Amino acid sequence: MFKSLKLYKEAGISLDQACQKLVELGYARQERVSEEGDFSRRGGILDIFAFSFELPIRIEFQDEKILFIRTFNPVSGDYLWEHTMVIVLAFSRAQTFKSLPLYEEFPLDNFVDLKIGDYVVHNKQGVGRFLGIQKIKVKDKTSDHLVVEYDRQEKLLVPVAEMNLVHKYLAFEAKRPKLCRLGSKNWLATKQRVQKGVQKLAWELISLQAMRLSLAGFSFAVDDDWQKKFDDGFIYEETADQIKAVEEVKRDMQKALPMDRLLCGDVGYGKTEVAMRASFTAVTNSKQVAILAPTTILAQQHYQNFLFRFQGFPVVIACLSRFSSASQQKKIVQRIASGQVDIVIGTHRLLSKDVCFKDLGLVIIDEEQRFGVRAKEKMKSFRLIADVLTLTATPIPRTLYMGLMGARDLSVINTPPENRLPIRSVVVEYDEDLIRQAVVKEAARRGQVFFLHNRVEDIEKVKEKLARILPDNIRIATGHGQMPALFLEKVMSDFLRGKIDVLVCTMIIQSGIDIPNANTLIVNNAHRFGLADLHQLRGRVGRLDRPAFAYFFIPKNAAMDSQAQRRLAAIQDYSGLGSGFKIAMEDLQLRGAGNILGDRQHGFISAVGFDLYCRLLRETIGNLKKTGLYKDEYEKLN
User: Fold this and answer.
1) How many CA atoms within 13 Å lie on the side-chain side of 205?
2) Which of 339, 453, 627, 629 is buried deepest, with most CB atoms within 10 A?
3) For the segment 313-333, what is each residue's pLDDT rounded down to a tens digit?
4) At 370, phi and psi to the nearest 5?
5) Is 548 left (phi over 0), alpha (psi -120 to 50) or beta?
6) In terms of Cα–Cα distance, which of 56, 51, 54 is closest to 91?
7) Is 86 helix (H, G, I), strand (E, B) or coil?
8) How many CA atoms lie within 13 A of 360 on its CB side?
9) Is the entire prediction scored with pTM above 0.90?
10) Which residues face 553 on adjacent strands?
11) Looking at residue 102, what is its pLDDT?
12) In whole angstroms, what is the distance from residue 272 CA to residue 265 CA?
């Protein structure tokens, strides 16, 4: 996963050695190269379609020496460029199988992939290990079967037609689950024990929903001509999921009870447009809107985007963050209280005691997981007085869990925007030659680079080191949260305007920063970051209809714990469009669901896996709602 192959003119390497190394890196030998991950060999010529390359390369060998390295057109075979050196990165070809739903309904269908070697749960037989798909001949007919291994190496063959009975085993701990014995009654007893155990939590979730239903909310009016004019002003083509999310949000807002909806969508999938349309609805109903962002830079960018989107409409928009002076902040706070500001965008500063709204109707929270505990407690009070819409690309496990359980209404945008390309991601050992190659390649197409180094103490030294290894014409600058606000604002403004080629920065760019011309990301010491953090960082690139690259560097020969290895493997494997939910589910396994469950529920999940646990819980909630047995049943459970 962390290896690469350097090939350069006059290098002493045989053709056989090069081919063997390519196989180890995950490349497949073909008759001719046609896509990334292919290589072919003919005589003394080796063709490679390397990961992150837009075109394949042809290498000519003589004995055990490389004579030429050239880029070529795979259609015509004309040579385009000659290279002194190329670096071939590892390529992942993991085969995956979709886990189908067990019953008619998240909860995890479409978000969880099943790989050979994974632990699975068969609804009737219990926990086993998935060994792959095998063709089996039954009554002169051959069909595909899932092979599941159980205790004492017993095998269960499940026809593909019954795939809905098998789903991935997910839990919140690293230890391996115990395999069940085929035909044993223990599995049935375990399921019954868990089903009884989830009743208490089911009742608590129903009570939470009942409390929301008892609150008096504001019923927003249906769309009018102004709203239609605003919606039509969107310069892109809406995706089907975007339209569905807009409809769900507006339907909630038109109800006479507070909205509490979680909007999940991968980075760059159009969540902000949904938020803008909801904001316009609130303002045209004479209500104020508060938009909370986790960082000053993101708040400022939202502010600029809202100003652009709302131009031509009589809507007053303000930004409250540390980019504003003390006197400016005081004036904005006064205007919010008097109702002169329709939409205010800000950081946790919006949660200060001196901020009072004349008539708050909608609160939009961007990346709630990035806020601290005190801020989250303050946000809870908003849910009692206004509609709340939470936006997230990789929901924290607790938020995801609440959405899956139905305790919060959930909308999902899974459709990528038109012309969006997946970000080509690789985990590799630190290599200055590769850094130089990545930066020069991006600069050659007049793009920009984020170089993330999350230590303010030595970030200037990193910048100086980059300056030594990069060509003199590459313009480099530094940006981090400890800079004076005005200076940081100028750096970000210069980067946005293309006056900087490489921005050496900290995690300040993590959430929502949208600079379409920046399409290469380099993360230093990637093993120190959380999985959701890595995915958010990757989302800073790939905003244009051109290939984008994300390089996650680790120190050479670094000793990493198993969780760090799993995080890095996941960020490389889940690099396709719409992988945010898969990242969140992997994060769920790595970090757990927080204290919302408690030790007892944690044990139930370990016994049957998270997927089946969710289904049993939903089933129990449905039965309790049908029978109306709430308080009496809860007392019995205690």
Assistant:
1) 25
2) 453
3) 999 999 998 788 889 999 999
4) -85, -10
5) beta
6) 51
7) strand
8) 21
9) no
10) 428
11) 28
12) 10
Strand partners, 155: 149
> Which of 26-35, 88-97, 129-138, 566-575 bottoms out in mean pLDDT, i.e. has the lowest?
88-97
DSSP states of 216-248: ----PPPP-HHHHHHHHT-SSPPPHHHHHHHHH
DSSP assigned state of 295: S
What letter does residue 393 receive in the DSSP assignment? S
pLDDT over threshold 60, residue 633 = no
Look at the alpha carbons of 278, 284, 289, 293 in this order and tell me if their dihedral is positive or negative: positive
Distance CA 529, CA 567 (A): 9
Q: Is 253 within 8 Å of 278 (Cβ atoms)?
A: yes
* Alpha carbon separation from 47 to 31, 69, 637 (Å, rounded): 10, 10, 67
Q: Nearest Cα to 113, choosing from 136, 130, 128?
A: 130
pLDDT number for residue 216: 75
Question: What CA–CA distance (Å, rounded) separates 397 from 171?
Answer: 12
Assess contact for 179 and 154: CB atoms under 8 A.
no
H or E, element range at 470: none
Tokens of 604: 């139930």
Question: Is-contact 45 111, C-beta < 8 A?
Answer: no
Residue partners of 623: CB distance under 8 A and separation at least 6: none
Contact in structure between 419 and 271 (CB atoms under 8 Å)? no
Run of H or E residues at 278: helix 271-284
Distance CA 102, CA 173 (A): 23
Question: Which amino acid does the sequence have at 399?
Answer: T
How many residues does this entry show for the chain? 638
For 338-355, give the secondary structure using H, E and C. Answer: HCCCCEEEECHHHHCCCC
Which neighbouring-strand residues pair with 135? Answer: 144
DSSP state for residue 417 in the 8-state scheme: P
Cα–Cα dist 498/250, whole Å: 38
Contact criterion met (CB below 8 Å) for 39 and 46: yes
| 252-to-11, 103, 133, 380, 625 alpha-carbon distances in Å | 65, 27, 44, 18, 21
As a dihedral over the C-alpha atoms of residue 558, residue 560, residue 566, residue 571, rounded to 10 degrees, the angle is -40
Q: What does DSSP say about strands 502-505 and 548-554: parallel, antiparallel, or unpaired?
A: unpaired
**15-73 pLDDT, tens per residue?**
888 998 898 888 888 888 888 888 999 888 999 998 777 788 999 998 888 988 988 88
Q: Is the pLDDT of residue 108 over 50?
A: no
Q: Identify the band that residue 94 occupies on the pLDDT scale cut at 50, 70 and 90.
A: very low
Q: Give 193's DSSP letter.
A: H
Collapse the DSSP code of 8 into the 3-class scheme (helix H, G, I; strand E, B; otherwise coil) and give the result.
strand
DSSP letter for each residue of 621-635: HHHHHHHT--HHHHH
Residue 146 sits at φ, ψ, to 5 deg, of -80, 135
Please give the C-alpha separations between residue 350 and each of 294, 321, 322, 346, 392, in angstroms, as whole numbers. 11, 8, 11, 6, 19
Mean pLDDT of 299-306: 90
Question: What 3-state DSSP class applies to 64?
Answer: coil
**Residue whose pair of structure tokens reads 């030659």 in the numeric block:** 433
Q: CA 325, CA 343: separation in Å to the nearest integer?
A: 19
CB-based burial label for 331 (10 Å; 0-12, 13-18, 19+): middle
Q: Which residues pair with 113 in a beta bridge?
A: 98
